[in-house]
Amino acid sequence: MEPSPAQASPLMRFGLAMLCMAAFLALPGIADKGIVFLAGTVALQMVFGLTWNLMFGQTGLVSFGHASFFAVGGYAYAYAARALPQVHPLLTFAGAGLLCAAIAALVGLIALRRSQGVYFAILTLALSQIVYLVISSSAALGREDGFTGIRRPKLPLGWTTIDLAAGNAYYYFIVVVSALLAGIVWWVTHSRVGRVFRAIQQDPERAAFLGIPVQRYRLMSYAIASGVAGVTGALFGPWLQILTPEVAHWTASARPILYTLLGGVHFFWGPAVGALGFAVLEYGTRTLHGISEIVTGAILLAVVLAAPGGILGAVARLRQRITGKERRP
Amino acid sequence: MLSSIAGPLFNGLFAAMVVFLFASGLTLVFGILRVLNFAHGGLFMIGAYLAFTLSGVTGGSEMGVLRYVLLCALAGVGLGILGWLVERSIFRPLQKVDEAYSLIATYALLLICEGAVKAIWGVNFRSVPTPPLLADAWIAGDVVMPVYAVFVIAVGVAFYAALEWMLHHTQTGKLMKSVASDPWMAGKLGVNVPRLYAWIVIAGFFLAGVVGGLLLPNQTLSPNLANAFVVQAFGALIVGGMGNVRGTFLAAILLSVIDSFGSLYFPEIPGLFFYVAMAIMLVVRPQGLMAGGSL
User: Fold this and answer.
1) How do residues A244-259 score in pLDDT, each as one tens digit?
2) Nearest residue, CB atoms, A297 vs list B115, B230, B234
3) How many domains are contained in chain B?
4) Nearest residue in chain B measured CA to CA from A258
5) Angle at the Cα of B128 (from B127 to B132), degrees rounded to 5?
6) A-B C-beta contacts closer than 8 Å
7) Does B290 reside within a domain?
8) Of A263, B36, B89, B111, which residue is the least packed, with the fewest Cβ within 10 Å?
9) Which residue does chain B place closest to A116, by CA atoms?
10) C-beta atoms of B112 and A293 within 8 A
């Protein structure tokens, strides 16, 4: 990970993140239902992208099957919420995430020891195809038709109960929880553990030589990323109120990769910016049949060829140029 | 007894050759340029659509085998020309950027392929009948062998033999191997590396087009076709040993035959065993079937 040239100061970045959050919270007041729905989906995708980059940008792990955890989390929540409606929804959400983290830990225990780089990527791709096939042919999960009628739960908070099915309540819930999840990823990245991740990403051999248990930390990165991704999937189910096997498809796993590279691998908020950019692109071209893919593809190509640092990389370079000029008398 | 083995074996071989044919161009490009081309499925799809349109343009309801083969070749040439353009405008500039970015670039290309197909041919499903000569089936004991499947198996083996021969017994093949193992050194020794890269991309695209045409009678044309075989092909490629043609061929057979037998005992989830076998192979033998030599 190259030191990013002209990052904004920490205070400014925190301010920008808060501004972004405020914009999300203010959105239902000014935009129509369609946009609000899109914004809720984007908020989840932003966190989903952040978790992928926790593995890639921080720890150097490339996963081609990240969507399988989104899907497992989503289906696990939907199934559990129907089977055990008396359990507190927050517990069910957390349980879906923990399940994903546990599965990732088990899979990673074998997969990470045996394979690295592109092999690990293809192995995760194979496993995600298995998840996809199992979901699409499981009667209990609704097969190809999808798991329908996922309800937005009532949220008992001790002193009061919030009905998330009412109005925009579930939207606000998504935005707040997404912010919390992003906070968790941020905290992991900037903690001591995050620094160990980066040491492994830069040079696993040297990290091992310095006494870092490389495999254990890789496993930790994979499990945390998968667990948080599972929670975003769990939140997505009630938002859409239906889950189809498409959420586990490999093209869904390509999403966080695109977000990350579009936004900027070397920046913590890169995947979030990329997810936002991608959504704007898709929304802007949604009515053009076929043209929308062409435009999206062409812009991605342009970013790769002209601005390999992603959107934030380009912004940083621009900042550097401006501030550099300003410093001269 | 015999038919209980021969039937699934035949089906497995058919599936294997479909995967191998699809993966052949992918393997060439990955073996030499080290680019995992996500767009290959999109190119394959365009090849199939091109053959479909050509079959309409050339008219006549009677689809002879010769005309069918000619259509595939034409689709291949069309894709080859596209490959030349893409190499110039995308792949060559990509050599300078990080590997991860070439991945996103090929994904972008896949999106463009899908968009182009939707814009040109629409989103409706289309299909093409099998040429009458290939529409028959042979029956040996209890095993039903569609002539078309036999044809695909034969073409797959022929493609494999031709690629092997070209790589190991011709001057071009030796140049390709030298560039694959060390492009810098090959360049120093006077090999025109950029030109060879261009020809490899053109060959990869050409193969995608030809195979798109060849598998057309077996497929329903829709913009989803781009995603049909990509993951299996990646599996064969990596299990085979990173862009090794022989490895890809063997891995395609191994995984598809295992899947074919697996589906007999567990028919609820078709295709599952391909990925199970793929995952097990990657864990047991992470270096691939044919580790060591490239191509």
Assistant:
1) 999 999 889 989 988 9
2) B115
3) 1
4) B104
5) 150
6) 128
7) no
8) B89
9) B286
10) yes
